[in-house]
Design goal:
The protein has 119 residues and is mostly helical. It folds into 2 domains: 28 residues; 88 residues, Winged helix-like DNA-binding domain superfamily/Winged helix DNA-binding domain (Arc Repressor Mutant, subunit A). It is built from 5 helices and 3 strands. It has a 3-stranded antiparallel sheet. It is globular. It comes from Chitinophaga cymbidii. One of its GO terms (molecular function) is DNA binding. This is Transcriptional regulator.
Length: 119
C-alpha cells in the first residue's frame, strides 16, 4: 500500500516539476516578462509603443519575442485598419494568469533592492 502511495507521490512530483519547467521555458529570457508587464498596464499597445517602453530592446528582438508570446497564446496580435497600417498587441485571458507572478517578482525585486542598499 505504501509503495502505491509513494508511486503516486512521485508521479505528482514529476508532473509538478514538468509544469514548473514548462513555465520557466515559456517565460524565460530577458524580455518576455517585461513585455507582459508592459501589456498588463494598458489594454493594447502598438509595436512602436512597446519598443519605446521596453527600454533597450531592438525592433528585431521585440518582433521575435512578440511572435513567441503569440505562438504560446499569451498575447493577441491585431492588424488595425488604419493608414498606415498599425499592429497592436494585447494580453490574452490566459496571460492574465501571469499577473500575480509578475507582481510577486516586482515585490521581491523592491525588497531585494532595499536589502542590497542596506549593505
Amino acid at each position: 500500500m505504501s509503495l502505491v502511495r509513494n508511486n503516486k507521490e512521485k508521479a505528482n512530483c514529476t508532473e509538478r516539476i514538468l509544469a514548473f519547467k514548462d513555465s520557466i521555458e515559456l517565460l524565460k529570457g530577458k524580455w518576455k516578462l517585461y513585455i507582459l508587464q508592459m501589456l498588463s498596464t494598458s489594454e493594447t499597445m502598438r509595436f512602436k509603443d512597446l519598443q519605446e517602453n521596453v527600454v533597450g530592446i531592438t525592433p528585431k528582438v521585440l518582433s521575435k519575442e512578440l511572435q513567441e508570446l503569440e505562438q504560446n497564446l499569451l498575447i493577441t496580435r491585431t492588424v488595425n485598419n488604419t493608414r498606415p497600417v498599425t499592429v497592436s498587441y494585447a494580453l490574452t485571458k490566459h496571460a492574465k494568469e501571469t499577473e500575480p507572478i509578475i507582481n510577486a517578482l516586482i515585490d521581491f525585486g523592491v525588497k531585494h533592492r532595499m536589502k542590497i542598499k542596506e549593505k
